[in-house]
Amino acid sequence: MVRFNGRHFTVFDRQNTPGAELSGVFCILAEADGGVLFGTAADGVFRYHHGRWQHLGEPAARRLPVSALLRDTDGGLWIASANRLLRMDVHGRVHDVGADAGLPGVRINALARSGDGALLVAADTGAYRLQGGRALPWAADWAGTNAVRGIAGDGADGWLLATDDGVYWRDAGGKVEHLQAGRRVEAVLRDAVGAIWMSLSSGDLLRHAGDGDERLTITGPVSPALLADREGLIWSGSTDGLHRVAEVAAVGFTRKDGLGSDYVRVVLQSEDRTLWIGHADGLDRWHQQRMHPVRLGDGGGRDPSVLALAWRDDMLWAGTYDKGVFRLDAQGRVQERIRLGSHGEPIVRALLADPDGGLWIGGTHGLSHYRNGQLQLRLDSRGQPTAVVHALYRDGDGTLWIGTTGGMAALRPDGTLRTWNAEDDIPAQYVFDFLRDPGGDLWIASDRGLLRMREGGFRVYDHRHGLPRDKLFRIIDDQAGNLWLPSNIGVFRIARKELDQIDAGTRRQLAVHVIDHSDGMPGSQGNGASMPAGWRASNGALAFPTSAGLGLIDPRIAGRYDGKAPPVVFESVSVDGVQQTLADRLRLEPGARRLAVDYTALSFRAPDKIRYRYRLHGFDGDWVEAGAGTEAVYTNLTPGHHRLEVQAMALPLDWSRQAEVGTAVMELDVVPPLWKRTSSRVLAGLALAAAVVLGFWLRTASYRRSQRRLGRVIAARTEELSDKNRALELAGIERDRLLQQLEHQATHDVLTGLPNRRAAELHLRQALERAGDRGEPLCVALIDIDHFKQINDRHGHHSGDRVLREVAELLRLQLDGDQFVSRHGGEEFLAVLRGVTLEQALERLQALRLALARQRMDEIAPGLVVTASIGVAECGPGQESPRTLLAAADRQLYRAKREGRNRVCGL
């Protein structure tokens, strides 16, 4: 048996649960007190409650095969065991009730309770009703005598029977509907929205609703395991495992749907409702529920990557990575190609078509205007920005807004140009999109968050206001009061009114709803620096390019299941590493040093979107924000009564909405040591008083003698304590020195004094996380000494060690400041360059290589010249983890060696 909490499975079997023969579990029954019953293949019934397992019943009951369970109102337990209906009383004694009631000796498949308290029995010869000690056929007049596999209420006083001849549904009014006639149905249920789910022996899971039947294929032979949970999810079991069916807010187009590439860059819908999709391998056209490839090249080669799209007057303009701009008709046929350069085509990232037939083209060349076959460069070096153009937006008054890698600009209808330089005039570096608000505000998507431009000033909404990531690629208004903002970790939905509340000071944090891979998106990483990086379709759906396909979001479904408080449970408690029995109240004995409590929220729809906080009342001054963490750890708790409270909430996060917050509480009693207890203190006080009285009596008898003796004792004890204190101080100093030495040896290379590979891996992980959070560039370089083995062979290993130390010292000098250098192994070194682009890294590493080649090493060996090959890679798509980034740098290192060594290669 396994327990699933939405994040991971916990196995319970005879190997890790002594006395629990759980290898064959045929049925599970949840009880009102939180306990769970398990019916097994041949070992009776087990009960799990508060972390404890109990084998129910008398010895004979512990060897029964169990296929169905139902708890009676008086505490008794109905048990379907092969061909018998048994009842276990509260004392564990088992009675064969079915035989006494006249129930046929056939296999029993399911049990249910009718509204009047009668027991309903599903058997291989039909359904039966047991009441008053007699079993009579039931439902034969409307469901026949087919084998009944399952019984379920329809939630409205009606009944559903899963039989070998389909499903029979009788509503409260007596109307009977026969579904899937002639097909064997293993299980049936009706969900909260009225749809009927049927698990068929053929391996199909069917959904029957007013809009028809929907078929879902379940791999492996199905089982009677079928469940609808409180979140609206449907769970189905088969021999291949557990299957979850969920209504999702997003779907996607990928290669499986005919898309030419999963790396989608742009999307646009034309007036005929055709969806145009630009990707890394060209252009596709979704028309009349089919995907059609659109060829841009005139040969059989690969089409260029499409990074920009624009539509006007039944014409599509497509901007490419290295082939200029193409004009196509509504059927996707190329009509014209615009070449932008005579010595290689620039990258086109933005297009905007004007009503007069003109076309604005933005990219690595700046901004051009094309009309009637004439191409004119509009942003050149004459005091105007030359940065890469990412976005173009035509305002209602005719102003052309231009987003670049160095800020933004506005071209007025009269031809005047106004620029906002990055950092100086606008609080952002990259500008990716614009949207004019009906109220006059201009919204700007940037690498520093969402900007609102009002009356010439800027208001920034970023991670400080609750944005999960600052870099945003697009702004789409869903016409329902929300802005949708794609990022590289999902699509954010923000209510406009919350932005106004932030400005008014009535709100501190935005409640950001994130749509990502867990909601059905093909990928969470959105693509930007291309135009348009998102589109609102005519039916209201939102399309967003991602690195794993085209995501399609239904705004009506997104957030439909928000607002429900997830139940929070404690999963385990350990004291000083020893597991404790779960209970509502925990007692910590004196001497307990470390308390660890694992908790989780039972949210199965999107467990990755649950956030936690906890507080130990009586110890913590405020809530501890745990994020996605599921463990609370405390050390050296003060004696007394404490109350641990854990809260959980699904994103978007707003703890003030307490109706949506799940809570669990555990009471803790920390027992004080004996000497801190009140009774001990009273006894100590009495003993002290008695000692004072006795001392006074003795003192009056021999005052002078005691005084001299006391003086000698005090002097001796003082000297003894002084000696011990000095010894302890020396021991403490020596221990600290040894600990510092051991800590340094654990993380540093003995020969060069540089951090070792272990320290480097930790630093690289932290640097990648920091770079991702701040949006900073990061490069990794591998530096390998050329022909080091020949140095060792010719001049000896001692000389080789001196060379390694010299190179290490040079690396320290050349790569100072905020950079990190370590010995990666052998003659190889690793450098982590934070805040440095690939171009900057290549420049610095080239200087390092030249400095090493010029380094004189005659003291090691006359005429010795040492060179190095260097491979460098920059963090980016496909190179975001330590493993992939190091692998990329290693490939560049081998490239440097292949090309002749003593060089720097980068990617």
TrEMBL record:
CDD domains: GGDEF. Pfam families: GGDEF, Reg_prop, Y_Y_Y. It is an enzyme of class 2 (transferase). Its EC number is 2.7.7.65. InterPro entries: Diguanylate_Cyclase (IPR050469), GGDEF_dom (IPR000160), Ig-like_fold (IPR013783), Nucleotide_cyclase (IPR029787), Reg_prop (IPR011110), Rev_trsase/Diguanyl_cyclase (IPR043128), WD40/YVTN_repeat-like_dom_sf (IPR015943), Y_Y_Y (IPR011123). Residues 776-907 form the GGDEF domain. Coiled coil: none annotated. PANTHER family: DIGUANYLATE CYCLASE DGCC-RELATED, REGULATORY COMPONENTS OF SENSORY TRANSDUCTION SYSTEM. NCBIfam families: GGDEF (TIGR00254). This is diguanylate cyclase. It comes from Stenotrophomonas nitritireducens.
